[in-house]
Amino acid sequence: MGGPWSGRCPRSSAAWRSTVRTVDFNDSGDARAFLAPYGLGFPALLDSSSRVGHAYLVSDLPVTFFIGRDGRVAHVFHGQLSDATLTASLQGLV
What we know:
20% of the residues lie in helices and 20% in strands. By secondary structure, the chain is of the alpha+beta class. It is built from 3 helices and 4 strands, in the order βαβαββα. A two-stranded parallel ribbon has the order 1-2. Strands 3-4 form a two-stranded antiparallel sheet. The two termini are 22 Å apart. The chain is globular, with a radius of gyration of 13 Å. The protein has a single domain (10-91), classed as Glutaredoxin, CATH 3.40.30.10.
């Protein structure tokens, strides 16, 4: 999840294309418009009411939830992900 002030960085997002679902938390902007110039076509949900963020008990941004094939949260990472952390976390899910 990211917010308007979180310094969104699409640098490592290309590796996530078939895996990522993004939630633009507590923002009135349009995450899809932000992602479009980078060619990132994964689903983006605008959570302007913070309903999803509150359901996942988000207290800081950015935060990444890794969801296993069973639909359960397998890992939560707070802060900007490095490529190494992203790769290791995704490999742990497959």
